[in-house]
Amino acid sequence: MTTEVKIKKLRDGAVIPEYATNGSAALDLRSAAEESITVPAHSRAAIPTGIAISVENASVVSIVCARSGLATKHGISLANGIGVIDSDYRGEILVSLINNSDTDFTVEPGDRIAQLMFMPVLTAKLILCDELDKTERGAGGFGSTGVK
Protein backbone atom coordinates (compact mmCIF):
# COMPACT_ATOMS: atom_id res chain seq x y z
CA MET A 1 0.00 0.00 0.00
CA THR A 2 1.31 3.48 -0.81
CA THR A 3 0.26 7.05 -0.12
CA GLU A 4 1.33 10.24 -1.84
CA VAL A 5 3.41 12.60 0.27
CA LYS A 6 4.60 16.00 -0.89
CA ILE A 7 7.93 17.08 0.59
CA LYS A 8 9.54 20.49 0.78
CA LYS A 9 13.15 21.31 1.63
CA LEU A 10 13.35 24.14 4.16
CA ARG A 11 17.14 24.23 4.69
CA ASP A 12 20.17 23.94 2.43
CA GLY A 13 21.44 20.90 4.37
CA ALA A 14 18.17 18.98 4.13
CA VAL A 15 18.29 15.46 2.74
CA ILE A 16 15.19 13.86 1.23
CA PRO A 17 14.45 10.76 3.37
CA GLU A 18 15.06 7.36 1.80
CA TYR A 19 14.26 3.74 2.56
CA ALA A 20 17.56 2.02 3.42
CA THR A 21 16.53 -1.32 1.91
CA ASN A 22 13.66 -2.78 -0.11
CA GLY A 23 12.24 -4.27 3.09
CA SER A 24 12.44 -1.08 5.18
CA ALA A 25 9.15 -0.03 6.78
CA ALA A 26 10.35 3.52 7.43
CA LEU A 27 12.38 6.25 5.78
CA ASP A 28 15.58 7.51 7.40
CA LEU A 29 15.41 11.08 8.72
CA ARG A 30 18.69 13.02 8.80
CA SER A 31 19.94 16.03 10.67
CA ALA A 32 19.86 19.23 8.63
CA ALA A 33 21.59 21.28 11.30
CA GLU A 34 24.22 23.67 9.97
CA GLU A 35 26.74 22.42 12.55
CA SER A 36 27.21 19.65 15.11
CA ILE A 37 24.67 19.45 17.93
CA THR A 38 25.75 17.85 21.19
CA VAL A 39 23.06 16.18 23.28
CA PRO A 40 24.51 16.23 26.82
CA ALA A 41 24.19 13.12 28.98
CA HIS A 42 20.68 12.83 30.47
CA SER A 43 19.45 15.81 28.42
CA ARG A 44 17.37 16.52 25.33
CA ALA A 45 17.84 18.43 22.08
CA ALA A 46 15.60 19.20 19.11
CA ILE A 47 17.31 18.31 15.84
CA PRO A 48 16.04 19.94 12.62
CA THR A 49 15.46 17.75 9.57
CA GLY A 50 15.02 20.67 7.19
CA ILE A 51 11.91 19.15 5.62
CA ALA A 52 8.16 19.64 5.80
CA ILE A 53 5.63 17.19 4.39
CA SER A 54 2.04 17.10 3.22
CA VAL A 55 0.35 13.71 3.34
CA GLU A 56 -2.34 13.82 0.67
CA ASN A 57 -4.65 11.48 2.60
CA ALA A 58 -6.14 12.66 5.93
CA SER A 59 -6.56 8.99 6.92
CA VAL A 60 -2.77 8.59 7.13
CA VAL A 61 -0.57 9.66 10.04
CA SER A 62 3.18 10.17 9.85
CA ILE A 63 5.06 8.61 12.76
CA VAL A 64 8.61 9.51 13.81
CA CYS A 65 10.35 6.52 15.43
CA ALA A 66 13.70 6.02 17.11
CA ARG A 67 16.57 4.26 15.36
CA SER A 68 17.29 0.99 17.13
CA GLY A 69 21.06 1.28 16.63
CA LEU A 70 21.22 4.69 18.31
CA ALA A 71 19.13 3.42 21.21
CA THR A 72 21.04 0.18 21.72
CA LYS A 73 24.58 1.42 21.13
CA HIS A 74 24.37 4.98 22.50
CA GLY A 75 21.22 5.30 24.67
CA ILE A 76 19.70 7.83 22.24
CA SER A 77 15.94 7.68 21.79
CA LEU A 78 13.03 10.02 21.14
CA ALA A 79 12.15 12.25 24.07
CA ASN A 80 8.43 11.72 23.44
CA GLY A 81 8.56 7.97 22.69
CA ILE A 82 7.21 8.46 19.18
CA GLY A 83 6.38 11.58 17.24
CA VAL A 84 2.95 11.99 15.71
CA ILE A 85 2.75 14.28 12.69
CA ASP A 86 -0.88 15.01 11.94
CA SER A 87 -1.92 15.13 8.29
CA ASP A 88 -2.60 18.88 8.51
CA TYR A 89 0.82 19.89 9.99
CA ARG A 90 2.99 21.79 7.52
CA GLY A 91 5.94 22.92 9.66
CA GLU A 92 9.48 21.58 9.79
CA ILE A 93 9.87 18.09 11.21
CA LEU A 94 12.02 18.36 14.32
CA VAL A 95 13.31 15.27 16.09
CA SER A 96 13.46 15.58 19.87
CA LEU A 97 16.27 13.29 21.00
CA ILE A 98 16.98 12.28 24.59
CA ASN A 99 20.37 11.01 25.72
CA ASN A 100 19.78 8.33 28.36
CA SER A 101 23.50 7.59 28.71
CA ASP A 102 26.22 9.02 30.94
CA THR A 103 28.16 10.29 27.89
CA ASP A 104 27.50 13.31 25.69
CA PHE A 105 26.39 12.40 22.15
CA THR A 106 27.11 14.52 19.09
CA VAL A 107 24.87 14.62 16.03
CA GLU A 108 26.66 15.71 12.87
CA PRO A 109 24.93 17.33 9.89
CA GLY A 110 23.57 14.56 7.65
CA ASP A 111 23.50 11.90 10.41
CA ARG A 112 20.53 9.55 10.41
CA ILE A 113 18.66 10.43 13.60
CA ALA A 114 15.19 8.85 13.35
CA GLN A 115 12.78 7.04 11.06
CA LEU A 116 9.58 8.24 9.41
CA MET A 117 6.74 5.84 8.71
CA PHE A 118 3.18 6.23 7.48
CA MET A 119 0.23 4.39 8.99
CA PRO A 120 -3.55 4.35 8.53
CA VAL A 121 -5.65 6.25 11.07
CA LEU A 122 -8.89 5.07 12.61
CA THR A 123 -10.92 7.81 14.26
CA ALA A 124 -13.18 6.91 17.17
CA LYS A 125 -16.84 7.64 17.60
CA LEU A 126 -17.11 7.89 21.40
CA ILE A 127 -20.31 6.56 22.98
CA LEU A 128 -21.01 7.67 26.54
CA CYS A 129 -22.39 4.81 28.66
CA ASP A 130 -23.07 3.90 32.29
CA GLU A 131 -21.48 0.42 32.17
CA LEU A 132 -18.76 -1.30 30.15
CA ASP A 133 -18.89 -4.97 29.22
CA LYS A 134 -17.30 -7.38 31.71
CA THR A 135 -14.04 -9.16 30.84
CA GLU A 136 -11.86 -11.74 32.58
CA ARG A 137 -9.20 -9.09 33.24
CA GLY A 138 -11.61 -6.39 34.34
CA ALA A 139 -9.86 -3.37 35.82
CA GLY A 140 -6.60 -5.24 36.51
CA GLY A 141 -3.83 -2.77 35.75
CA PHE A 142 -0.04 -2.72 35.61
CA GLY A 143 1.39 -6.23 36.03
CA SER A 144 -1.98 -7.85 36.64
CA THR A 145 -1.31 -10.59 34.08
CA GLY A 146 2.14 -11.44 35.48
CA VAL A 147 5.53 -11.75 33.84
CA LYS A 148 5.53 -15.39 32.69
Unreliably modeled segments: none
CATH class identity: Mainly Beta
CATH fold naming: Deoxyuridine 5'-Triphosphate Nucleotidohydrolase, Chain A
CATH-level-2 architecture: Distorted Sandwich
Structural class: mainly beta
Q: SSE order in H/E notation?
A: EEEEEEEHEEEEE
Query: What do the pLDDT scores average to?
Result: 95
What's the domain count?
1
Number of E-state strands: 12
Percent range for β-strand residues: 35-45%
Shape: globular
Helix content estimate:
under 10%
Largest sheet: number of strands, sense, barrel closure? 5 strands, antiparallel
Report the end-to-end length measured between terminal Cα atoms.
Answer: 37 Å
**Arrangement of strands in the largest sheet:** 2-3-12-7-9
Query: How many helix segments?
Result: 1
Radius of gyration based on Cα positions? 19 Å
Q: What is the fourth-level CATH superfamily? A: Deoxyuridine triphosphatase (dUTPase)
Question: How are the SSEs placed, and which strands pair?
Answer:
Layout: E1 5-9, E2 18-19, E3 27-30, E4 37-39, E5 44-48, E6 51-55, E7 60-65, H1 68-74, E8 76-78, E9 83-85, E10 94-99, E11 105-107, E12 112-120
Antiparallel strand pairs: 1-6, 2-3, 3-12, 4-11, 5-10, 7-9, 7-12, 8-10
